[in-house]
Design goal:
Layout lengths: L6 H13 L5 E3 L2 E3 L5 E6 L4 E7 L2 H21 L2 H17 L1 H12 L3 H19 L16 E9 L2 E5 L5 H7 L2 H5 L3 E5 L6 H12 L7 E3 L4 H8 L7 E5 L2 H13 L4 E4 L5 E4 L5 H13 L11 E5 L3 H13 L19 H16 L3 E2 L7 H4 L12 E4 L16 E7 L2 H8 L4 E2 L1 E5 L3 H10 L4 E4 L14 E2 L2 E2 L7 H5 E9 L13
Parallel strand pairs: 6-7, 6-9, 7-8, 9-10, 11-12, 11-17, 12-15, 14-15, 17-18
Antiparallel strand pairs: 1-2, 3-4, 5-21, 10-20, 13-14, 16-19
Helix pairs in contact: 1-4, 2-9, 3-5, 3-8, 4-5, 4-8, 5-6, 11-12
Length: 511
Amino acid sequence: MNPMISSVETASAAVERSLAGRIGSFLDGRIETGSGADIGLIVAATGETFARFADGGPEGALAVLESSLRGAATWAATDAFERAAILRRVSAAVEAHAEELALLESATVGKALRDARAEVAKVVEMFGYYSGWADKVMGQTIPVPGDWHTYTERVPYGVVVAITPWNAPLFTAGWNSAAPLAAGNAVILKPSEFTPLSTLRLAQIAHEAGLPEGVFNVAVGAGATVGAALTTDERVGKVSFIGSVPTGRRVGVAAAQTGIPTVLELGGKSANIVFADADLDRAADGAIAAIFSGAGQSCVAGSRLLVQREIHDELIARVAERASKLRLGDPLDPSTEIGPIITRPQFETVRTLIDRGIRDGARRVTSDALPAAITASHLSGGHWVLPTLLEGVAPSNALETTEVFGPVVGADVFDTEEEAIARANGTRFGLAGAVWTENVARAHHVARSVRAGTFWVNAYKTIHVAVPFGGFGDSGHGRSSGPGFIDEYTQPKAVWVPTRAAGAPFPSLSY
């Protein structure tokens, strides 16, 4: 990137190029600007405002819902093979616009360009994978007593509202739309008001690729206005939510009071366990990837590093040395490895939690001095947090159970396998985890014993739409990926057909 071009100018140019400068809700194939409160969008790398838009408000949310109800009827009536073909075209269209989407995401969200490119490729994969399932949603024939032909069908919910977070807006937009669309639902994406732009452009591209009007809409605005309206309207079939535990609980309660089922993918405090027999170079590289990619703004981040005593000092030194070499910089620079914290409130939260962890007895191993490339440039006002390794994060430390959602890992020592498992299970979260060991029996035992929806052996942070993903406990419930998406986004309907001779009496039935 040309250093003479400011990040604010680049973000504004990306909005103009991809969205013709218009920011609002997407419905019926067009963008409709809101009339509510003014919302500013911030360049995370500089802290400056680059665009403003009006909140859609409850009225705008209901207009989007009305459009989606019409779209749901159209989409459910579309032949399943045609739905599959359209989703294949969406996948191809996203791939054709891959660089545009990556640049839009990087410029307006603050995600490192190389990460944004990788996430666009995953969105291409999502629509491709689920297009293969769209014509394979089927029921069963079930034998029952008597003269009956009984079978089930899988019926879509109608309209699925997907509330997505600010940390990976484009990735989660694909993750939470491709599956319900394949199941025959219309989708309303409600992105974070901090990062709505790549979601809007994805919806435009999907519409241009052949999705009918109203099938893939975007409701833009705040959670308290737009989100609240959509999660409490009884015409909504299902709500999926990705975000924090407190907000997820509020969404779940509000939806349940209206009788709307939910899928909740919430936070994590995942343990990354390293035994003395592990390959230390691989384990150190894995620890870096587990916590520092995406500046730690990941629900599955390996934010707790538990190291067996015999190798503790050596592994901590290796992780610290690798962390010190990670390059912070402008997200649009292809060599940048760590971008800024995306929102100002989260930036302040991360800094507060680091200070609290140190007050609770942890020792900072890595530097806290930002490089001159940040402090002496136009990036000096950005939301920058250096990769941070805190050693001695004991069970009594707040960082043992508090999700930071930033590039901060708390390390501590353990002696036995039983102790490591107990520490890993010592929080209410249950999203992810990993173990590093050359002992096959130990690997399987730890994987079975740690309570987490996803667990890696000698690896970290690999996911794929073909595999179920979700959490236990405070990390949420439901699985919206893998073949199980059919059960998540459709309902079974039983059909009974009598096969007896005409005029035969029906048996007495009661329920």
